[in-house]
Design goal:
Elements: E1 6-12, H1 16-27, E2 34-40, H2 47-57, E3 61-65, H3 72-84, E4 89-92, E5 98-99, H4 103-113, E6 119-128, E7 131-135, H5 144-149, E8 167-169, H6 173-180, H7 189-199, E9 203-214, H8 219-223, H9 228-243, H10 254-272
Parallel strand pairs: 1-2, 1-4, 2-3, 6-9
Antiparallel strand pairs: 4-8, 5-9, 6-7, 6-8
Helix pairs in contact: 1-2, 6-7, 9-10
Length: 280
C-alpha cells in the first residue's frame, strides 16, 4: 500500500447512493499526497461494488472490510485508529459528504504552519431541502486558555460539530479516544469529543475552504434520548465531562470556574437539544 501524508477514511454502511460522489470529491482535491481507505461496515447494498469500481479507477483508494457489523461509535473509532496509524495526518469522511477542492491543502498547510495544533477545521456548508447555511465558529472560542486565565469565559462554546471531519494530526489519537465513549451514546458525541480541542486551543481554524454536510440522516431520532430521565442523565454527563477539562486550563478564580460550568451546562443544552421542563 502506498504511503501518503494524509489518510482519508470513509466509514461506510449502506452508502451506495452517494458514495461515488463523496469519493470523487476527495479524488478532485488539489492536494495530491493522500490515500483514501473505504471502511465497509458489512453493507448490504451496492456499497462494495461502488467502492471496488472506484478503487480500480484510482489507485489512491482501497477497501477494508469489517468482519462483523459494528455500531456507529465503534466503526468511526476504528476509522480513526486506521487513519492515525497510517499517515501523518488523517480525516474522516461520511459517504454523503463533500468539500471544496482546496479542503485538504488548506487544512494541511495550517497544521504544517503551527505544530501546536492537532486539528485543522473550516466552516461547514450545511445542506437541507431548503438550500444551505454556512456555519462558522464564534470568535470568542479562540484563545480560550488566555481568556479563561483572565476570567473571560463565553456563555456558549459555539463551533460546528462537523469539525469531527477536519484534518487531525495523528498524535491526537489519545485525546480522541479518551473521550470517545464517555457519553455512552452516539448522539452529540462529536461535539463532546471536540470540546477538549477547542478549550485547549488545539484547533487551527481556516477560513475559505468548506466542508459540505448533508443534513437529514435522522441521527437524533435514532440515537437521541426519549425519556426525561435519560435526557437529564445525558445532559449531566455532557456537562460534567466538559467541566472536568478545567483541570487542563491555567489557574483561575472561583468566578471563572463558575462561568466555565455555566458554559458547559449551556453547551450541553444546545448540543443535545434536550429541554428539561420546557425551561432550561
Amino acid at each position: 500500500m502506498m504511503n501518503a501524508r494524509v489518510v482519508v477514511v470513509f466509514p461506510v454502511y449502506n452508502g451506495a447512493a452517494t458514495l461515488r460522489e463523496s469519493l470523487q470529491s476527495i479524488a478532485d482535491q488539489d492536494f495530491e499526497d493522500f490515500r483514501a481507505i473505504i471502511l465497509n461496515n458489512c453493507s448490504t447494498d451496492a456499497t462494495p461494488q461502488v467502492a471496488q469500481r472506484f478503487c480500480e479507477e484510482d489507485r489512491r483508494f482501497s477497501v477494508v472490510d469489517n468482519e462483523i457489523h459494528l455500531g456507529a461509535e465503534d466503526n468511526f473509532a476504528k476509522a480513526v485508529k486506521i487513519g492515525a496509524g497510517t499517515g501523518e495526518y488523517f480525516c474522516l469522511r461520511a459517504a454523503d459528504d463533500l468539500s471544496s477542492p482546496d479542503f485538504l491543502r488548506k487544512l494541511v498547510e495550517a497544521l504544517d504552519a503551527d505544530k501546536t495544533k492537532l486539528l485543522a477545521a473550516c466552516s461547514t456548508k450545511s445542506f437541507n431541502a431548503k438550500g444551505f447555511k454556512l456555519k462558522h465558529p464564534a470568535p470568542d472560542i479562540f484563545d480560550f486558555r488566555a481568556n479563561y486565565a483572565k476570567g473571560r469565559v463565553p456563555r456558549n462554546l459555539t463551533f460546528p460539530s462537523e469539525w469531527i471531519y477536519g484534518v487531525f494530526r495523528s498524535r491526537s489519537l489519545d485525546i480522541l479516544m479518551a473521550r470517545w465513549y464517555e457519553l455512552g451514546n452516539p448522539w452529540c458525541f462529536a461535539s463532546y469529543v471536540l470540546s477538549e480541542f477547542v478549550i485547549r486551543d488545539l484547533v487551527a481554524y481556516v477560513p475559505g475552504p468548506t466542508f459540505d454536510f448533508r443534513e437529514g440522516s435522522g441521527s437524533q431520532q435514532k440515537f437521541g434520548a426519549k425519556r426525561f430521565r435519560d435526557r437529564l442523565s445525558q445532559r449531566l454527563t455532557y456537562t460534567l465531562g466538559c467541566y472536568r477539562l478545567v483541570d487542563k486550563l491555567p489557574p483561575a478564580g472561583l468566578l471563572a470556574k463558575a462561568k466555565f460550568f455555566r458554559m458547559c451546562w449551556n453547551d450541553a443544552r444546545r448540543k443535545t437539544r434536550y429541554k428539561l421542563l420546557w425551561i432550561f
